[in-house]
């Protein structure tokens, strides 16, 4: 509990600002932001008691940071199960798929595979948002910001709060 | 309010003032209500709007707070720039730290503008993540309210002006008809134009006013016609009066002349009362004028005018005429000389008529009695009557004497001789008389107590009264019936007396009642039965004096009489007499006392004189009888020392008895005189000459004569008698 409080305080101080607070890595900020973004989303087929199935596809440090941060605490109020997948076929059942930058080439296939209902696609690679990744983090100077692709969310059957959209950069049309 | 009432505006001005006052007050009140209502509404709306805006901003502020996105938050707050009312907005983090702030530039606001502060918690996922404080000003609202008030004020002002103009026109609806009515009233009041009628179409209050006005004029016209007619009648009446009708002022000047007086040229207006009448009459008239004005009551005066002594009667009545000095006196004067003469004649005729009635009744009774006396006398003359005939003659004579006493009693010339009298004996005597004279069909009963009932009275009068009542009872039963005599003692207190219709003194009374079962007396006649000459009997059967005499007897004995009667059933007369202590009544000795001495008898009536002389001589006296008083006086001058007593008649043609008494006393002051008279003249009762002299009432019996003469000779001389009387 003390740990959680300390983390939250830390996040509150610089969750979206990485440059001014070098003590917190960009991935940590993204991991925390991802958890907060999820609080503004609602899955139409979400099971209440089922753990959040989070799959990290390809390379990237964000997945590991997520695993590290949420291995001992709930993710948006629910337990989270983080798995790592190398190939597209290894994704399996998932609620959230963090797509690494190494899948930029087959992003369309990945997105096609994730087209099944209820999969939130997340990236931290520039241009992924325009290409159809639902949530895509990007750097804005010293700040970490994120893009939201409403169409991708709609395809996944996920509803995003308008509040989220006031802060995000909306990409890919509505 | 009083000052408003004292305003001297015209009705038009008042109506305008009322209209404008109502309009302005109503407008201001209405404007105040509208503005205040609008203000409440606008402020409420502003407050609600501020709250809603704060809630919205707080909603949007959740994400920036969650994501620590200050720029995002400021971006949201910057959106408030479009809202002029919002002057300040602060987004606070959960810790209370200012996360983002917005302040509108140049938002000073007006002095009367209020601040609306809304605080909203920023929630996310059911958790408080911050707070939004939003501050707005009501300046814009106040501006809109002021603008609205201004518009309403202008509207009201315009409305007032328009209404004033309209009222100026509309008030003519009210003031126009009133002005017409006032004009009509002016014509009625100033010119007496009672035909002035005004018409008004409508059913409102003014129509009622017009109706009342026209009705009032109708009534005035009607009353005017009635007054004119009444005045005409009165004038005709006054002018045709046989009286002199004059109106004087308070100084006695003639102001108006009417009636018969208007025919007299000297009774001209303006002349003084002194010019019209002799000084003494004028003075009396002036005093009457002053008295009637002073008392406001009619004053009646009588006066004589002219050489022939015409007798006038005048009634003066005050005539009210405004102030006191303008009052007048109406004098209605009439020559009553002829009326007085006729009245005197009438009274004389009436008296003669009464005397005629009386004489008729008396003559009838006397004729009957004389017939009896003559009859018995003839029997004696024929030598067949015996002592019984003489007794009958005496009885009849006694009845004749009673009749005379009744007459005298009625004329109040008879003096009652009161002494203790036993009522039982009296009633028994009446009963005895009745038993011999009543129709056999009448059943007579007498109810008397065993003890003596004594009253202080004249037995003859009382017996006559009871007999009178009994005779009346008899006459009321021509076909027979019951006649009941009763005597008893009654203790009468004030309450009992109040039920008897007669004035009595509380105490023991002897009641003598005479009841019959005869025809009774009609109620309308009951009130008159005790009046003299009142009779229901046929002419010649009654004098009408009986009950009047009974009434007089009751009064003379401090008693009373009550009558109860019912037509067809009978009557009850109750005679009440104060009871006297029972003493033995004087009983005359059976034998007349004899005497001796020389008596002088003076009586102009030969029969009486001779009878009395014979009786006196029978009693043992020596008698010198004179028919003419002057002869008696002459004899007395020469022989007064030899005369022991004088028996003197009172009413004589040559010389009245009183003068004879005086002459005899001049000759011999010691002379003993016995007045023997059936009638004492006016004033004789208390004349100086007769004071203290004994009286022997005619007709007298031998017994009465003997007792009176014996008593006379036992009396002290005239001097002693005069001294005793003094």
Task: Tell me the β content of chain B.
Answer: 15-25%
Biggest interchain interface, per-side counts: A-B, 17 and 15 residues
- Biggest beta sheet summary of chain B: 5 strands, antiparallel
Largest sheet of chain A: 7 strands, mixed
Give me the Rg of chain A, rounded. 15 Å
The radius of gyration computed from the alpha-carbon positions of chain B, rounded to a whole number of angstroms, is: 60 Å
Give the fraction of residues assigned to helices of chain A: 25-40%
Global structural class of chain A: alpha/beta
Give the oligomeric state: heterodimer
Count of DSSP helices of chain A?
A: 7
Q: Tell me the span between the first and last alpha carbons of chain A.
A: 40 Å
Average pLDDT of chain B, to the nearest integer? Answer: 82
Distance between the termini of chain B: 95 Å
Which strand order do you get reading across the main beta sheet of chain B?
Answer: 6-5-9-8-7
What pattern of helices and strands is seen along the backbone of chain A? HHEEHEEHEHEEHEHE
Strand content of chain A: 15-25%
The poorly predicted ranges of chain B are 584-589, 681-686
Shape estimate of chain B = elongated
Structural class of chain B: alpha+beta
Care to describe what's here?
The complex is a heterodimer of chains A (174) and B (726). Chain A has helices at 2-14, 26-39, 61-70, 107-113, 128-131, 150-155, 162-167, and strands at residues 41-43, 52-57, 80-85, 96-99, 120-123, 135-140, 143-148, 158-160, 169-170. Chain A is α/β, with parallel strands linked by helices and 174 residues long. In chain A, helix 2 packs across helix 3 (61-70). The longest helix of chain A has 14 residues, at 26-39. Chain A is globular and about 30 Å long. In chain B, the strands form 5 sheets. Chain B has a 5-stranded antiparallel sheet with strand order 6-5-9-8-7. In chain B, strands 11-13-14-16-15 form a 5-stranded mixed sheet. The model of chain B is unreliable at 584-589 and 681-686 (pLDDT under 50). The interface between A and B is medium-sized, with 17 and 15 residues.
């Amino acid at each position: 509990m003390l740990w959680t409080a300390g983390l939250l305080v830390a996040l509150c101080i610089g969750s979206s600002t990485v440059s001014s607070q070098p003590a917190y890595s960009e991935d940590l900020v993204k991991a925390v932001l991802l958890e907060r973004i999820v609080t503004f989303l609602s899955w139409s087929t979400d099971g209440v008691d089922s753990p959040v199935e989070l799959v990290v596809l390809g390379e990237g440090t964000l997945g590991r940071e997520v695993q590290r941060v949420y291995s001992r605490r709930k993710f948006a109020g629910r337990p989270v199960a983080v798995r790592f997948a190398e190939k597209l076929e290894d994704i399996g059942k998932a609620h959230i798929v963090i797509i690494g930058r190494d899948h930029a080439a087959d992003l369309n296939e990945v997105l096609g595979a994730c087209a099944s209902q209820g999969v939130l696609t997340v990236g931290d690679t520039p241009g992924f948002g325009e290409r159809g990744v639902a949530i895509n983090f990007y750097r804005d100077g010293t700040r970490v910001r994120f893009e939201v692709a409403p169409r991708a969310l709609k395809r996944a059957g996920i509803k995003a709060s308008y509040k989220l959209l006031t802060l995000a950069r909306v990409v890919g049309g509505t | 309010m009083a000052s408003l009432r004292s305003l001297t505006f015209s009705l038009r001005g008042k109506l305008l003032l009322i209209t404008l006052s109502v309009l302005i007050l109503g407008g201001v009140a209405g404007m105040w209500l509208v503005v205040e209502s609008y203000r409440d509404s606008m402020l409420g709306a502003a407050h609600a709007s501020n709250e809603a805006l704060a809630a919205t901003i707080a909603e949007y502020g959740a994400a920036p707070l969650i994501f620590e996105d200050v720029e995002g938050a400021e971006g949201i707050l910057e959106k408030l720039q479009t809202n002029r009312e919002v002057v300040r907005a602060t987004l606070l983090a959960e810790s209370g730290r200012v996360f983002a702030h917005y302040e509108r530039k140049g938002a000073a606001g007006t002095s009367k503008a209020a601040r609306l502060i809304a605080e909203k918690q920023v929630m996310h996922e059911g958790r408080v993540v911050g707070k939004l404080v939003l501050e707005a000003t009501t300046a814009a609202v106040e501006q809109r309210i002021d603008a609205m008030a201004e518009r309403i004020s202008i509207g009201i002002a315009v409305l007032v002006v328009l209404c004033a103009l309209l009222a100026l026109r509309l008030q003519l609806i009210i003031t126009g008809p009133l002005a017409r009515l006032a004009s009509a009233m002016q014509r009625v009041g100033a010119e007496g134009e009672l035909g002035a009628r005004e018409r008004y179409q409508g059913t409102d209050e003014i129509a009622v006013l017009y109706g009342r006005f026209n009705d009032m004029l109708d009534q005035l016209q009607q009353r005017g016609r009635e007054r004119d007619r009444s005045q005409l009648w009165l004038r005709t009446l006054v002018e045709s009066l046989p009286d002199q009708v004059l109106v004087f002022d308070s100084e006695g000047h003639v102001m108006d002349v009417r009636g018969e007086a208007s025919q007299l040229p000297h009774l001209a207006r303006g002349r003084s009362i002194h010019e019209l009448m002799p000084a003494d009459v004028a003075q009396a008239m002036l005093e009457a004028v002053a008295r009637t004005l002073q008392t406001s009551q009619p004053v009646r005066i009588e006066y004589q005018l002219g050489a022939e002594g015409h007798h006038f009667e005048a009634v003066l009545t005050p005539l009210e005429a405004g102030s006191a000095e303008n009052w007048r006196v109406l004098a209605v004067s009439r020559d009553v000389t002829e009326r007085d003469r006729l009245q005197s004649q009438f009274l004389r005729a009436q008296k003669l008529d009464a005397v005629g009635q009386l004489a008729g009744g008396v003559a009838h009774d006397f004729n009957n009695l004389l017939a009896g006396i003559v009859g018995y006398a003839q029997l004696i003359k024929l030598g067949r009557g015996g002592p019984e005939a003489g007794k009958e003659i005496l009885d009849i004579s006694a009845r004749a004497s009673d009749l005379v006493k009744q007459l005298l009693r009625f004329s109040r010339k008879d003096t009652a001789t009161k002494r203790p009298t036993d009522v039982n004996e009296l009633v028994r005597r009446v009963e005895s008389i009745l038993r011999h004279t009543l129709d056999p069909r009448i059943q007579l009963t007498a109810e008397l107590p065993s003890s003596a009932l004594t009253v202080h009275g004249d037995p003859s009068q009382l017996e006559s009264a009871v007999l009178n009542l009994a005779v009346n009872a008899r006459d009321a039963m021509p076909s027979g019936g019951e006649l009941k005599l009763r005597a008893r003692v009654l203790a009468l207190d004030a309450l009992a007396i109040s039920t008897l219709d007669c004035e009595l003194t509380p105490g023991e009374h002897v009641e003598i009642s005479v009841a019959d079962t005869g025809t009774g007396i009609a109620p309308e006649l009951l009130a008159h039965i005790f009046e003299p000459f009142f009779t229901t009997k046929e002419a010649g059967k009654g004098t009408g004096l009986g009950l009047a005499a009974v009434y007089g007897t009751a009064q003379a004995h401090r008693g009373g009489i009550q009558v109860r009667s019912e037509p067809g059933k009978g009557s009850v007369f109750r005679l009440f007499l104060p009871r006297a202590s029972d003493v033995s009544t004087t009983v005359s000795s059976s034998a007349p006392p004899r005497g001796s001495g020389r008596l002088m008898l003076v009586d102009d009536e030969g029969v009486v004189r001779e009878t009395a002389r014979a009786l006196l001589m029978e009693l043992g006296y020596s008698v010198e009888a004179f028919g003419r008083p002057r002869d008696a006086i002459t004899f007395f001058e020469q022989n007064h020392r030899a005369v022991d007593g004088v028996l003197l008649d009172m009413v004589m043609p040559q010389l009245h008895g009183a003068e004879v008494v005086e002459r005899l006393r001049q000759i011999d002051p010691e002379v003993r005189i016995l007045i023997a008279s059936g009638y004492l003249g006016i004033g004789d009762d208390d004349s100086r000459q007769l004071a203290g002299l004994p009286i022997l009432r005619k007709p007298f019996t031998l017994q009465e004569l003997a007792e009176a003469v014996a008593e006379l000779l036992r009396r002290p001389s005239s001097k002693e008698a005069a001294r005793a009387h003094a």
